[in-house]
């Protein structure tokens, strides 16, 4: 039975316009005139028998039918592009990974050599950044992000929970002369980034009332990878995810003074557009990474040092 397909030139013009929500930007991307893009979309709307865009004076918006077709069209073109690249070069090429610095320094950089040894034809390029990469605008194949679920429109695999607890250099207690017997004793210590919301969550779980830190005072190190460096240097107490600092705990560069670990809904996620799920280099990296994190809800704080 023959497939009922729309004109691919019209679908291509619509997909670009739906992605950009702009006929002008779609025309620039495709090397067409704006009038030509508009004409192709009109042809597609006539085939469907319904409008795909709500056309305003200065902007356009997708109709319900347009949103459904736009999402599916983008995924289909991503799949075709991935298959084309695979047909051209097999699994060779460059795999660009956008990764949050905490995960990059705490785990990925220490293990990535194993993936590279197993797949020498894939050149891996790491882009360590706190910014969320835009897969449509940046040359990024996969992302590893921290926080809540990345949301609709991306395939997302949870790697681990971002559980957290206070940690400090063992010399800090002796240097301050303030014994750490109860969680409330931490209130007298220098806290690294004291307005981090994790602090209030941890103190609440510990049964400690902590007032006066509801307003952000602007003191930020930018991420727990930097906060951990400050804690190892003895500058204060940082609230950290123990999984990433097992080596520091084992070597005595950090200690966890209390067994109170906050379980978080936040986590670390491997994500990519649906159309790339079958691209060989993405599939190989995904399968390798997930083999190291088989249970994203497991408590990994007590796992031994990183080998």
UniProtKB/TrEMBL annotation:
Keywords: DNA-binding, Transcription, Transcription regulation. It comes from Aureimonas flava. Coiled coil: none annotated. The keyword Transcription regulation applies. This is LysR family transcriptional regulator. GO terms for biological process: DNA-templated transcription. CDD domains: PBP2_GcdR_TrpI_HvrB_AmpR_like. GO terms for molecular function: DNA-binding transcription factor activity; sequence-specific DNA binding. Pfam families: HTH_1, LysR_substrate. The lineage of its organism: Bacteria, Pseudomonadati, Pseudomonadota, Alphaproteobacteria, Hyphomicrobiales. Belongs to the LysR transcriptional regulatory family. PROSITE patterns: HTH_LYSR (PS50931). Residues 6-63 form the HTH lysR-type domain. It comes from the Bacteria.
């Amino acid at each position: 039975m023959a497939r009922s397909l729309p004109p691919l030139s019209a679908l291509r013009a619509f997909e670009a316009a739906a992605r950009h929500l702009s006929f002008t930007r779609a025309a620039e991307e495709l090397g067409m005139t704006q009038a030509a893009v508009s004409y192709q979309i009109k042809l597609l709307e006539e085939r469907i028998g319904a409008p795909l865009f709500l056309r305003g004076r200065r902007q356009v918006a997708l109709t319900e039918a347009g949103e459904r077709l736009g999402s599916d069209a983008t995924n289909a073109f991503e799949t075709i592009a991935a298959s084309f690249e695979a047909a051209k070069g097999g699994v060779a090429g460059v795999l660009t990974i956008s990764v949050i610095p905490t995960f990059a320094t705490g785990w990925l950089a220490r293990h990535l050599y194993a993936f590279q040894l197993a797949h020498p034809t894939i050149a891996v390029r790491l882009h360590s950044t706190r910014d969320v990469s835009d897969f449509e605008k940046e040359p990024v194949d996969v992302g590893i992000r921290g926080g809540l679920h990345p949301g609709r429109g991306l395939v997302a695999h949870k790697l681990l929970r971002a559980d957290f607890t206070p940690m400090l250099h063992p010399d800090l207690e002796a240097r301050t002369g303030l014994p750490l017997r109860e969680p409330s004793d931490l209130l007298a210590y220098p806290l690294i980034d004291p307005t981090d919301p994790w602090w209030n969550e941890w103190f609440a779980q510990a049964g400690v009332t902590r007032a006066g830190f509801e307003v952000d005072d602007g003191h930020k190190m930018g991420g727990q990878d930097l906060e951990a460096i400050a804690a190892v240097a003895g500058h204060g107490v940082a609230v950290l995810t123990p999984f990433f600092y097992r080596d520091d705990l084992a070597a005595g560069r950090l200690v966890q003074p209390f067994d109170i670990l906050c379980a978080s809904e936040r986590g670390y996620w491997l994500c990519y557009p649906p159309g790339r799920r079958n691209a060989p280099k993405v599939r190989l990296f995904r399968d390798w990474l997930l083999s190291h994190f088989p249970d994203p809800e497991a408590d990994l704080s007590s796992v031994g040092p990183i080998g």
